[in-house]
Model the fold of this input.
Amino acid sequence: MTIQSPKTHPDLVVPVRNLSEARANATYEALMWALARPGEIRSLPGSDPFALAETLVDRECRVFACDASLSERIAATGAYLTPAAEADHAFLALDTPDGLAALRDVPTGSHLYPDEGATVFAPADIGSGRGLRLSGPGIEGAVEIWIGGIPDEVWAIRSARCEYPIGFELFLIDGDRVLGLPRSATIEVL
Amino acid sequence: MAYVATRGGERAIEQSERLYRAGLGDIDAQRVAAIRQALPWLIDRVMGEASLYEPDLAALALAQSGGDLYETVLLLRAWRTTQPRLAIAEPVTQESLFTVRRISAAFKDIPGGQILGPTLDYSHRLLATSVLEGQPFVPMPVEPAARPAPAHQPSLAAWQKAVGLVADVSATPVAPEDIPDLTREPLLFPAKRAHTLQSLARADTGGVLALGYSAMRGYGNAHPTVNELRLAEAELRVRHPRGTVFSAGRVKVSQAEVTNKGKSGKLELGFCATLGWNEVKVIAGATLDLNAPAAPKNSPVNEEFFLYHTEPVEASGFCIHFKLPHYVTFQSSLDALRDAKAGTAAHATSSTIQRQEEPA
Amino acid sequence: MSLSNLTRPWEAFSYGFLDASAKREMRRKMLKAIAVPGCQMPYASREVPIARGWGTGGLQVTLTLIKPSSSIKVIDQGADDGVNAASIRRFIARVSGAAETMDTLEASILQSRHRIPEEKLRDDQILVLQVPNPEPLRPVEPNMSAAREMHADADYSRLWLTLYEQIVRSGRIMQGAAYPALVNGRHVMTPSPIPRWDVPKLHMARHLTFLSAGREKRLFAVPPFTRVEPLVFSDVPYKVEDHASLTCDRSGVKGYFMNEIPKDDGTSAHELSDSQFGVKAIRRNEGETVAIGDTWYKNGTFTQ
Done:
């Protein structure tokens, strides 16, 4: 049953959303559900990684990106480019030694402020490669996923650095598909 | 009778708002201009608490809320929060202020001189009732001094530092864009210095006075002496994206420094500044700041205590929220109470019902 | 960077009222809240055009998520037509163009003060609970900084002690609404002042819940399939309100959370607290075809 409320201010019209607002809203929805249901693949409105930055970061953020041209575009949002160890958001190429080194460096927060742990984005192949069994919040029982294109070392680093409730969030991006791995998820490498 | 989806609630809220607005009548540009012109000190107070320096908008907000100050500040804050942050102004120093009033209670005379400026401090507070009988009150003309006071004044604390009365704190230079902004990030404790001062600058005047006064009466650990009080205008110097620094205009500011002899054998300073001219607020705020470092936890001069409890929008909003229905939480408590009573009767044991935290 | 990078074309106000930077901060904090269920995440909490303490925290979450195709239900104490619920719902629709609904089954976002609807929420629905006081430790530690350290150390001993003292003094735990619960085995949270009746609806639920306190500037979340366990002693079971045998005077429905209506003769009548659930039951009684969803409680008993 849809209802219509009376309009007390006839001069106020519903604001129209612009393109970037619509894209950021849809991108966030995909990220949110991906993180709330680890293992579930969600669709992003596009495959440009800059949309992820546009959704989350601005002048109040410190960002590290492996890719130079992405760095440049992110800097234009007003965000500060920093080394991985100080970044609250990191865009990493985990198939490179630099990317793995950055994953060893990103902040993991503290027991006092777990929210200071970083949010990490990295390209990967979703649906093929190494089998992983996930369990924890957001997952009914356990779920198995397959991730390729990044070395097994990623899982060792994650398991060493994510000691709940400290840790980082990892979003794997494959084109317009995204998969979220919150620090609360237990990952068993199969 | 069927239990239909009543729209009574919707109609009631619409009509109650209309009733309130009907009481205020039409609001036009003339009324707003009259408020701005007639009530500059109120406009200043509102701009400080709203942390938005725009006298026309402040006058409009006062007109729209009929002078309910908490409503006025909320209106302005809700507008302010949607505005983009374009630039960060260069720091304002005491020496650079265009000072119209500057006094110190610490010394009979100070370098640069005591400048009374506009004040009612020494006036006799007599109501001009003849105005109501049709005889306008016409202020006596000001007689200019033979020699105008200098527009810029030195800082007294700088002199005190130079002669070793005040410890010189080594200041680490901070890039303007790195100054923490209370409106963009949460207040956490121990608070960043910038957050403390920003929070005091937008604090409720009455709230700061109440807690500051409690400290002055003895609930604090430091007795304030007004080291320097200033009413001034500050140049708003911002950097254009092309690199030029230019003045975007002047804003009225007030600041107070209060002092007390510290344990270190030097003078300690408490500081408060705000947009607009509001002497009571900055003196009371500086007193709280002076007392904060040595304050016991949960005392009124503890930083967390006074910053949380003098936030006008939060405090007033929470206070009026108790008008909202709470019958679900009440029902839940009632259930526990009845069950405990039944249990007590059954066991015939004596029990005291303890005071319980009522959820809001 | 130029001025035009930083500014935007003039609009009376942004889509969904909050500007892009406010929404980005909310998004960042909401992600962290999902990642550490039940842990209070500090956020800037912008002013919105309603008073603090009147749902500004829930509103900021809703306005961040809202889109034109959303369908929004707002309740206060279980009722859609409560004055504040109606006002919030109208504001959300006014700034977003989203559809307004009273039906739990139709809503994509449900913003609520003090209740969770009786019909089960699905995995595509988001529940936004308004929170007056986000700190379950406040009764034992009013200082927020000290309470935060207790959470960091998972030191809940003083909370356990007060619960134990209540049993000793009154024969039962006297906490009414806002019953504290351990989330994902790590953080104790307040479920907001929902009745004890509603707390089990958060445990291993299919939907996503955000809890947001605008005045206190803290938000937290309960993702789907997350453990939410009320703090109880192993030999004193958790007890919901004794409403299982009450019957709604208006709809004849039995076995749900009720409002008590005192009568002149000293007795009390009861009516369903979930008002739209009651409306649907009456419509069905009158012969209309009405979709009523599966409920968490059946015959007054909670079933997972």
User: Anything to note?
Assistant: DSSP finds twelve helices and four strands in chain B. Residues 92 and 234 of chain B are 7 Å apart (CA to CA). The longest strand of chain B covers residues 245-261.
